[in-house]
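Sample pair:
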Amino acid sequence: MATVNEGVEGTEPDEEEEEDVQTGSLVSQSLPHEYKKEALDFDVGSFRLDGASLGERGELNEDDQYLSLVDEGNWETLELEGTVTIDQDTVEKVFPFDEWEETPGRLALVKENPLAMSRDRQILADSPLDGGTHEFTLCIKRDDHRGRMKIKPFLTRTERSGSSGSKHASKVGARVADGISWIIRLDERDDGGSLLMPIIEDFSDYDRFPDENHIHYLSLEAPRNPQLYLNKGHPQVINVLNNTGPTGGPPRLRDVLYDYVEHSVWTQLLMQTARDTSPDTGEPEYSWQEDVLDIFLDDLYPGLDDDEAKIQLAEDVRSHVDIPDLVQRIERAVHQQYDIPSDTTNLIEEAIQSDD
């Protein structure tokens, strides 16, 4: 599991997410304030590599808002130029009437690159906010980034609302609208770590996270790029997870904690992969799901070859009759990846020795 990453101030996680986690299960949950999802029109008009037009370089899919530069070498800077448009109707939907003329809002592009442990933002328009189209130029330096990058526009509040009982957001920094993200894939990861780079956030600060009793949360809001969050509200737990020592009590405790976190994460990723795999072709929708299948497929369906197993997985998750058996298969397959009893026993022995 990779080292966790402190969040950058001002780049809070997506409060608009209408899914929460309770004891590891996604459940529907409404937001306490008005939120306009995908209401900001995020358009990238041009891509330039080292000052030259992208041309035939890279794999560009404008419909999916996705650019891959995995096969492109010898470049230093990627420059994006475009616009983010916010309609006045959106402003009037997410801010109360008395704020329409001088709207306490901020429009920003948030850039997240988990593998480089980097998150920052570019302010496009500040309070008082005007609706309309706002231009941007965003430069991405190749040496500063790794893996996949997500770029997404957000509209947030800049002042606390004085309207009590309003259906609108009241907290400074609360996100009230967003747009569809662009995904930029720079290279294949080669660090040998897990699929996810955890990011630390205080769960009590944001409505879209589970309550403060939870240690972790897996966000599948962007299925192309799942993200794991750890709760900053448990500093002792975070300190243990950050421990890099090879032996002793803290490293043993770290291993047990990561076993617990990863067991839940892999279970959710397997279920998502099953849902996203075609029952006709056995092909998953996203590249990371191929990695998941490579790890678990033999344990899930030991009597089938890979192609047959993928199709069977997709069929089982769509069958009410076969779902209970699939859940048990997934539980057994995930358990095969960990030696939780041994890790826990070693931790207990370490504690006993410390007491002697």
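DSSP finds seven helices and 17 strands in the chain.
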